[in-house]
Amino acid sequence: MNDTFVILLVGCMVASSCALVGTFLVLRKMALLGDAISHSVLPGIAIGFLLTQSRSSLVMVAGAGALGVLTVFLVERLQRTGRLYADASIGVVFPALFAVGVILISRYASMIDLDLDCVLYGEIAYTPWDLVVVAGKTVGPRAVWVTGLTLLLNLVVVGLFFKELKLVSFDPGLCEALGFRPVRLHYLLMALVSVTVVAAFESVGAILVVAMLVVPPSVAYLLVDRLILMLISAVAAGCIAVFAGYGLARMVDGSIAGGMAVAAGGLFILAFLFSPRYGLIATWIRGRRATGSSAGPNSVL
Amino acid sequence: MSAADIVPTTGLPAVEVHDLTVAYRSNPVLWDVDLRIPEGRLVAIVGPNGAGKSTLLKTVLGQVRQTTGWVQVFGETYATRRSWVGYVPQRESVDWDFPTLALDVVTMGLYGRIGWLRRPGKRHREIALACLERLGIGHLAKRQISQLSGGQQQRVFLARALAQDARLYLMDEPLAGVDATTEKAIMQILRDLREEGRTVVVVHHDLQSVPEYFDNVVLLNMRLVAAGPVDEVFTDENLQRTYGGRSTILTRAADAMFASKATRKE
Questions:
Q1: Do you know which PROSITE patterns this protein is assigned to (chain B) (predicted)?
Q2: What does the alpha-carbon distance between residue A196 and residue A46 come to, in Å, rounded to a whole number?
C-alpha cells in the first residue's frame, strides 16, 4: 500500500469513528467528558502494554476501556455527592489518572517500545511501516486493522442502538419512563468513546483526539437539522479535515496531527460564519430583513 | 372517537401511594403521603413551588427513589404497568435545539411499543402524524423543533403522549407558558382522553382555572393537604393550609393567581 494512502485511510477511519461517538457527546453536552476519557485511558494503555509488550493487544484496548468507564464512574460518584460542581469533578478525576499513565510510561520507557511523545501527539506518519505479520505473511499496516475494526464496532453499535441513543440524548426522562435504561446506555456510549480514543491514539494522539471528537460534530450541528444527517455530516467534516490537514502538514513540513486539528478548526470557522441556517452571516441577514420589512408586527410580539 | 377506542375500566385506583416519604440528601421533599387517584378522572396537582409536585410524579414513574412507602399503578408496580403510563415532562426539561423534527419527537412516544433495537417504520410515522394532526399541527411535522413556538412545542409533547396510547397520563405543567389558544386546545385533548376512560394527572399552577378544568384536585405542600373531587376539597380553608400560614396565605394565593394569569396572557 502507498504510504500516503495508508495515512489518509487511517486518518479518515479515526475521524469517522470519533465523529460517530462525538456527535452524541456534543448533543448530550458531555464534550468535556470525552476530553477527560481521552486522557484518563492512558494508564490503561500503559498497563496493557506492560503486561503484553505489544501495542495491538486486546489487553491494551480492554485496559483503556476499563479506565474510560472508571473515569465516568468516578466523575458521577463525585457529582452525586453534591459537594463539587460537575465540571470540577471531571477536572479532578482525569488529570490524576492521566498523570499515573505519564509516570508509568516515563518510568518504563527505556524497557518498552512506547514513546510518550507518540502517545501525546500521535505518530500517524509512521503507521505505514508498522506491519502486522500473521503466520509469516504481512497482512498490511497494523493501524489500518485497529482503526478499521474500531470503525466497524462504532458503526455496528450506533446502527443498532440509534433509536435508543437518540432518545436518551434528547429526553432521558422519557427514556427511563419507557424502560430504556439511560444509565446503561450512558456507559455503553462511554465504553465506545474509550475504545475509539485508544484507536485514535494511533493517528492524532491523546491531546488532539478531542479535536476529532468535538469539532466535526460541532460543524455538523451548525449545518443540519436531523440527527442522522448530523452523523453523516460529522463523518464528512472529519474526513475533509484529514485530507486538508495532511495537505497543510505537507506544505509547511509540520506535524500531520497538528495539521488535521487546525483544518478541523478552520472548517468550524467556515461553518460558523457561512452556514446557511445557523451561520453568523445568515442570521445577520435574516435579522436585517426582519427589522427592515416588517417592524410593526415583530415589535408587538 | 368510536366506542372501540374507549379504554376498559379496571376498577382499580389509577395511582395509589402509601406512606410515601422522599428525601434528597436528608431534606424531605414529600412527607408521609397517602393518596389514591381514581381512574377515569382529570386530576390537578397544585401546591406552592417546591411542594414536591414534580417529585410526586417522578416517584410514581420510579425515577426518584422513595425513602419509605410504596407506589402502585393500577394495583401493580410501575415497572409492570409501564406500557399503561404516558409521561409528559416539563417543556424546559429537554433541549429544543436538538437536531430532530417534530414528527421524530412524536414517534418517540411509540418507542416503548417498538422495543429495543427495532426501528420505527412507516406505520409508526403515520400514527405519529395522526397524533400531530389531532393537536392541529400536522403541517409542522417536518419542522425542526427549535423553529416551533413554545405553544407548538407543548403541542408536540402532547402529541407524543397521545402516541403512547396510555391509560394513565402524568403531565408536568403542560399549560405552563402557553398562549390562550393552545391552552384551550390542550384542555380539549385532556377532556377527550378522560371521555375515552383514561386518567389524566396534571401538575397545575393556575388556581383560578382548577374548578373549570378538573374533576379532582390534589393539594400538596410536602405533606398531602387534601385530595378529592374539586367541589369537596378545593376550599379556601384547604388552600390556606396548602399555601402557607394564615398571615401570608392570601397574598401568596393572589400572587400565584396573578402570576399564572400573566403567563397565560403572553
A1: ABC_TRANSPORTER_1, ABC_TRANSPORTER_2
A2: 16
pLDDT tens, position by position, B66-105: 999 999 999 999 999 999 999 999 999 999 999 999 999 9
User: Is B251 among the domain residues?
Assistant: yes
> Is position B208 within any domain?
yes
Say whether the ipTM exceeds 0.95: no
Give the span between the Cα atoms of B21 and B28, in whole angstroms: 7
The grid cell for B230 is: 374539586
Contacting residues of A for B79, CB less than 8 Å apart: 179
Tell me the pLDDT tens digit for each residue of B217-249: 999 999 999 999 999 999 988 998 898 754 344
Domain residue ranges in chain A: 3-209
Q: Please give the full DSSP string across A232-298, using - where no structure is assigned.
A: HHHHHHHHHHHHHHHHHHHHHT--HHHHHHHHHHHHHHHHHHH-TTTSHHHHHHHHHHHHHH-HHHH
Please tell me the total count of domains within chain B. 1
> From the CA of A134, how many Å to the nearest CA of chain B?
36
The DSSP symbol for B120 reads P
pLDDT at A67 over 80: yes
Confidence of residue A128 (pLDDT cuts 50, 70, 90): confident
State pLDDT tens for residues A236-286.
999 999 999 999 999 999 888 889 999 999 999 999 999 988 888 888 888
Neighbours of B176 (CB within 10 A): 19
Distances (CA, A) of B126 to A62, A169, A170, B99, B117: 44, 24, 21, 21, 20
Longest Cα pair distance anywhere in chain B, in angstroms?
59
Contact B79 A179 (CB under 8 A): yes
B77 within domain boundaries? yes
Give the domain CATH number at B221. Answer: 3.40.50.300
Which residue is closest to A163 within chain B, CA to CA? B119
Query: Given the C-alpha cell 430583513, which residue does it identify?
Result: A289
Tell me the C-alpha distance between B78 and B260, whole Å.
32
* A226:B100 CB<8 A: yes
Query: For A159, which residue in chain B has the nearest alpha carbon?
Result: B117
Longest dimension (CA), chain A: 79
Chain centroid to CA B142: 26
Confirm whether B179 is domain-assigned.
yes
Q: Are the Cβ atoms of B63 and A177 closer than 8 angstroms?
A: yes
A179 touches chain B (CB under 8 A): yes
Edge-to-edge strand list for the sheet holding B15-24? B27-37, B15-24, B68-73
